[in-house]
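Sequence in, structure out. Go.
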Amino acid sequence: MNPRILVAIVVAVIGIAPQIAPPFYVTLLNYIGLYSLVALGLVLLTGVAGQTSFGQAAFVGLGAYTTAVLTTQYGFSPWITLPIALGITLVIGYVLGIITLSMGGHYLPLATIAWGISLFFLMGTIESFGGFTGLTGVPPVSIFGFELLKESHFYYFIWLVVLAALWCVANLLDSRPGRAIRALKQGSTMIEAFGVHPGRMKTAVFVIAALLACISGWLYAHLQRFVNPTPFGINQGIEYLFMAVVGGATSVWGAVLGATLITLLKTWLQDLLPQIIGEAGQFEIIVFGILLVVMLQYARDGLLPYLQHFVPQAKRALPAAADRLQHRTMPVADSPVLDVNTARKTFGGLVAVNDVSFNVNAREVVGLIGPNGAGKSTCFNLISGALDATSGSIKFMGQELIGQTASTISKLGLARTFQHVKLVATMTVVENVALGAYLRGTKGILASALKFNREDEAAALAEAMRQLERVGLAAHAHDAASSLPLGKQRIVEIARALASDPILLLLDEPAAGLRFAEKEQLAKLIRGLKDEGMTVLLVEHDMDFVMGLVDRLVVLNFGQKLAQGLPEAVQADPAVREAYLGA
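Output:
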């Protein structure tokens, strides 16, 4: 069955539920909708971006208390309190995001627990907030003069908001900034190489998740018409995360599935377990723990991704025609492109790159060779900004690169591949390649969420397909990147780098894992790039491949430049033969 038909069926069920379900279940469905909004934010933040948060309940409380205080004590309209609550949440979320997301490892979730608890107790101790007793008399929401007093009326309002949020988040993930968000789990080195600022992107996702939680809190306050701190504690924050994980933390509809399952199970178990055990208590927590262990054993990505294995996934229809992205003007032949002058990199007492100097001119293919541990990949990292040089100078197109971030350097026209392949396994081949065109797009998060990015997206995907055709992998466009053999994954990396339209292309062991015919095809591609005006600097251990391809060679050994010159001269150099090539 087509996934779109399944979504249509779910939406239809949501629409008729209040007409056929008992009032008790309408109430449960209202709460499921509220929980789904928070879980959706966690899908984006934790499941997709890889940033664990236990403190989302505090943002729910922020939305609820803002509207409760302003409506009951100052007479504000609920519709005026909504943008105020969102504004306050945006500021607090931004500040907390900058502070929290700079932490790594286990410090990140611990920090979210800390500020979650802090906001909870703050809500309970401020006198104007009613303390732990709370605030009553929150007015109902009115739409064109019609007050949503009944839960069945508020139901449609809640689920309209939920469906709109699902649509926006799905649009966002299927866009230029969405691909960058989905690549955050891969680490900062790869996405910075294509112009993405990982810190800013993580903070943006954190704020979006906080805003979704705030909307849920605003809705909760006007549904309940009463607010106290109890629903906004750390226990509820853990439950929200549990919902996202159970439903499927990488799927937007997983948020709804997780919220539905946890809410219904919790209700049923609270009624059933005391009858079985014979005494009251929160025994459902034990059952949830057992179920979570079982699920992690058989469906680690959550229930929805597991169920999707049984539903055929339709291939995405790519645009047949689109405006081409603008291309850079390439420098004239033999003009200076890269100038490395006494570049040095030390790690404590270890000198990885020792005052290395060489240059690369326009429309030239230069090989950087040497034994393992010679400092070749470290040199690449210094040039691309992945590492900061200790001293020296590295200039690209006349601009000093030392001190610049990798994302800034990529904007100048430098792209690279990696020694160890860095593709986003959960994305298709064409999506991975489109990630390389990130800097060539213009539409941001809001425009993408509202689907105002159609032309931008069509151009990026068309460019990705053009590069896949260029490297001979168009037939694999819709395959998962992780399903390709290592050799083809390296070619996908090259296509991704080409999608950024670079002046200088850095290739780190591009022929590793390729068969003979594939190496010949790669060599033909590199020669074609040179003819088109591109400049290439490559690291490679296959000397047969290198010698017939490059214009010049630079040889490193123990972090120092050993030799430099034409391939024939370098190959005949006794020092090079002794250190690397052999007799």
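Check: The two ends are 64 Å apart (CA to CA). The chain is about 55% helix and 10% strand.
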